Amino acid sequence: NRVSIAPEVEDLLVIRRPPAVLHCGHVHTIGMTRYKGVTAINSGTWQGQTDFQKKMNIQPTPAIVPYLDLSTMRARRLIFASSRDEF
Question: Which terminus has fewer CB within 10 Å in the chain: N or C?
Answer without folding.
Answer: N
